[in-house]
Specification:
The chain is α/β, with parallel strands linked by helices. Helices cover about 40% and strands about 10% of the residues. Helix 6 (about 165-170) packs across helix 7, helix 8 packs across helix 9 and helix 16 packs antiparallel against helix 17 (about 420-435).
């Protein structure tokens, strides 16, 4: 659930060469969940981009190997290199057999026929019923009535705070009643108390889904309209949200220069910030022996638009997204690839994924176990955000990567909040041009 880089110069079209390579020969049969034949080679190559999930996913894959006799080789590739690898494979190189798909890029791969059509497999499956998965994620990975990926997970956002820094600054811990104004006031007090040694909060322009997007939607703004046809950067409510974000940049956050040099997660773990908003996929980064006792997770604050002192519907938002398990359309082992995908996304293995603390499930009702996976750290705020807040699906369009280029421009706003109107208007014009060409 990380943000995507621009889709480079790749021009994915149906006329591309279909010469993608997969792994070698041999044959075997298996049942994933008891119903899928997995003929093909004795190795399935899998690529992912998150090292913190590797151990748990490999454990789940090894259980499939015990049944199928087919080895699963999961390799972690850094986020940028991951998409470069897939781009090269889609252009005529070699794609992995099974891999993750993301909302930013899936439309291009589906349109270019680079993903294995799973529709018939799903219709024959006794294990996979798409109604059991989060609808927004399932819909994301479908096109023209065909399904090209099955939801792997879903995520929500919560507020992480450092109790030691709050105590040092003499500020009360976040509560369920916190508004964004409370967040601002607490952060300002911490920054003033820190006097350059620590700050109230840290947030980067790259912290969109896990940061300021939640504020934008809380304030009634948007990044893209619901029909995915128009930019929301110049929406009046988006601009209102940025007035508040400007206050945070001036009085609460450390400088973008400091963030650029160190990174938000490093700054927080190095006791340089009292608060950080983060996604559920990042818990393992902060679940460390020397930190967990002094860290706490809370609900995201809300924008009290009605002024009644309670979070009404739509006033506490959490962005959410979900990855999908997909396979190469050119794999030499489609049955085995489907069998593995079916296994990963089955109810039992989705539950195991949650129990192992890999991430929240894409299968409804399997995420409660995730809250118990981190001994000594209460992460129930992520599940409560889903139950008590408003879920907002991560903004996307047909060619998200063509307009997903705004972060460098927002650095100017972070450094000088007075430039917000000018920058947001320019971003809206650029984004609308890209959307018009979709």
């Amino acid at each position: 659930m990380k943000k995507s880089k621009r889709f480079m110069a790749l021009a994915l079209t149906g006329a591309m060469a279909m010469s993608l390579a997969a792994c070698g020969g041999g044959s075997s049969d298996s049942n994933s969940g008891g119903n899928s034949s997995a003929g093909g080679s004795d190795v399935i190559e899998v690529k992912i981009w998150d090292n913190t999930q590797l151990k748990g996913l490999q454990e789940i894959a090894d259980l499939w190997t015990e049944q199928s006799g087919i080895k699963v080789n999961i390799q972690v590739v850094t986020w940028d290199d991951y998409w470069t690898l897939l781009e090269a494979g889609a252009s005529g190189g070699e794609m992995p057999d099974v891999f993750w798909m993301h909302s930013n890029n899936v439309q291009m791969y589906m349109e270019a026929d680079k993903l294995l059509d799973l529709t018939d497999y799903i219709s024959k499956s006794e294990v996979t019923d798409l109604s059991n998965y989060y609808e927004g994620i399932t819909t994301l990975y479908s096109m023209d009535g065909k399904q090209y990926a099955v939801p792997k997970d879903h995520d929500t956002i919560a507020l992480l705070y450092n109790k030691a820094i709050f105590d040092k600054a003499g500020v009360a811990y976040p509560t369920d009643d916190w508004t964004w104004d409370d967040y601002y006031e607490a952060g300002k007090k911490i920054t003033e108390a820190g006097n350059g040694e620590y700050y109230g909060a840290v947030m980067n322009t790259s912290n969109d889904q896990d940061g300021y997007w939640n504020i934008i939607y809380d304030y009634g703004g948007c990044v893209i309209t619901e029909d995915h046809k128009k930019s929301g950067w110049d929406d009046p409510n988006t601009k209102k949200a940025f007035e508040f974000i400007g206050k945070l940049c001036s009085d609460v956050f450390c400088s973008q220069a400091m963030v650029a040099e160190n990174g938000t997660d490093v700054l927080f773990n190095n006791q340089m910030a009292g608060m950080i908003t983060q996604g559920s996929w990042m818990i393992n980064t902060f679940y460390q022996d020397d930190h967990r006792d002094q860290y706490g997770w809370a609900l995201l604050p809300y924008y009290d638009a009605n002024g009644n002192g309670q979070a009404d519907e739509g006033e506490r938002c959490t962005m959410y997204n979900g990855l999908g398990w997909a396979a190469s359309s050119d794999t030499k082992n489609p049955d085995a690839c489907w069998s593995l995908i079916e296994w990963f996304t089955s109810k039992d293995m989705q539950l195991k994924q949650a129990e192992l603390g890999v991430t929240m499930a894409g299968y409804k009702g399997c995420s409660d176990a995730f809250a118990n996976a981190f001994e000594g750290m209460d992460i129930s705020a992520f599940l409560r955000m889903e139950e008590e807040g408003t879920l907002v699906f991560r903004p996307y369009s047909k060619y998200t990567s063509r307009w997903d280029t705004y972060r460098p421009a927002l650095v100017e706003v972070w450094n000088d909040p007075s430039t917000a109107d000018k920058v947001l208007d320019a971003l809206a014009a650029e984004m609308n041009e890209a959307l018009a060409n979709e």
